[in-house]
UniProtKB/TrEMBL annotation:
This is UDP-N-acetylglucosamine transporter. Belongs to the nucleotide-sugar transporter family. SLC35A subfamily. GO terms for molecular function: pyrimidine nucleotide-sugar transmembrane transporter activity. Its main location: Golgi. It comes from the Eukaryota. Keywords: Golgi apparatus, Membrane, Sugar transport, Transmembrane, Transmembrane helix, Transport. It holds the Pfam family Nuc_sug_transp. It is found in: Golgi apparatus membrane. One of its GO terms (cellular component) is Golgi membrane. It is a multi-pass membrane protein. The chain crosses the membrane at residues 21-40, 52-75, 156-177, 189-210, 222-242, 262-282, 289-306, 312-329. The keyword rRNA processing does not apply.
Length: 334
């Protein structure tokens, strides 16, 4: 029996799926559900039910993330509650300079998470999903300036295609929505577009900055995420109090919350950590497939359930974005 055959036999199966297949499903579901459910939770409340305050959802997501990272630190590394608590104390309270390093990415992530709620309150889920792929462009730009990487011709071509596709999608969505959507339900596509563009820039810079910190230190990834979560929770709390204190004082922190809201908050908190655990089994081609499938799935569900009517420009632009995403990801293996 060959070595390849042995690998196939030893490869663990979960519900009949190998790790790569499971990774693809998890990435697609997480990418699609977060966008669709966040959009639905912000636009489909009953007339007598208040919409939950976005800043409180961002704050609660950071709290959940801290507890999740603490659990993973215990489960994967320490295997002891006492050692886990001691390590967190040493890394947080005894090394304030290391925590200070997290202020920049945590502040940007807090900004990004708040902007996502603004964007999805003003853009269709499918339009947001396509436009949000511009984070590939910002990440590429910051990886060149912060991490010293270089891009070959195929990746530059993918970035150009990405810009073309997103431009087509936004040209259609903004012009058609200005007259119909804005007047009918108060949504402002221009505000949504500015929010998602700013979110893409902050996501790209914060991601590259955080990667640089991880690669230039020996600190555990879970400890770094706990530091990031503590700083992020602090920024989110300050933003929540500054922007929505009056509303929170009048009706409470959890006004408008329901089961769907908690699902969105938990998905946002755990999504990145879940993907971080699964993608080690998936190559870049698979990640590109997952992103592409999630864009198609979001568009299909929006069309069937959320009264979204894609135009020719939208379909063309989406196809170009999917091709660009796949080309950029597949080229990482070359």
């Amino acid at each position: 029996m060959s070595h390849a055959d042995n690998d196939k036999i030893k490869e663990p199966l979960i519900y009949g799926l190998n790790p790569k297949q499971l990774s693809l499903i998890v990435l697609v579901v997480q990418n699609s559900m977060l966008v669709l459910l966040m959009r639905y939770s912000r636009t489909s409340t009953l007339a007598d039910q208040p919409i939950y305050i976005a800043s409180t959802a961002v704050f609660m997501a950071e709290i959940i993330k801290i507890f999740a990272c603490s659990f993973m630190l215990y489960y994967q590394e320490e295997k002891s509650y006492k050692r886990c608590i001691k390590l967190i104390y040493l890394e947080i309270y005894q090394k304030p300079r290391e925590v200070v390093k997290m202020l920049i990415p945590s502040g940007l992530y807090a900004l990004q998470n708040n902007l996502l709620y603004i964007a999805l309150s003003n853009l269709e889920a499918a339009t947001f999903q396509v436009t949000y792929q511009l984070k590939i462009l910002s990440t590429a730009a910051f990886s060149i300036s912060l991490l010293g990487r270089s891009l070959n011709r195929e990746k530059w071509l993918a970035l150009v295609l990405l810009m073309v596709g997103v431009t087509l999608v936004q040209t259609e969505s903004v012009t058609s929505a200005e007259s119909s959507v804005e007047m009918s339900n108060g949504q402002r596509p221009i505000v949504g577009l500015l929010a998602v563009l700013t979110s893409c820039v902050s996501s790209g810079f914060a991601g590259c900055y955080f990667e640089k910190i991880l690669k230039t230190s020996t600190t555990s990834m879970w400890i770094r995420n706990i530091q990031l979560g503590i700083c992020g929770a602090s920024f989110s709390f300050i933003g929540m109090i500054m922007s929505d204190y009056g509303q929170i004082r009048a009706a409470g922190l959890f006004q408008g919350y329901n089961l769907l809201t908690w699902f969105v908050v938990t998905n946002q908190a755990l999504g990145g950590l879940l993907v971080a655990l699964v993608v080690k089994y998936a190559d870049n081609i698979l990640k590109g497939f997952a992103t592409s499938i999630s864009i198609i799935l979001s568009g299909a569900i929006s069309f069937c359930l959320l009264d979204f009517q894609p135009s020719f420009l939208f379909v063309t632009g989406t196809a170009i974005v999917i091709a660009a995403t796949y080309l950029y990801g597949a080229n990482n293996n070359r």
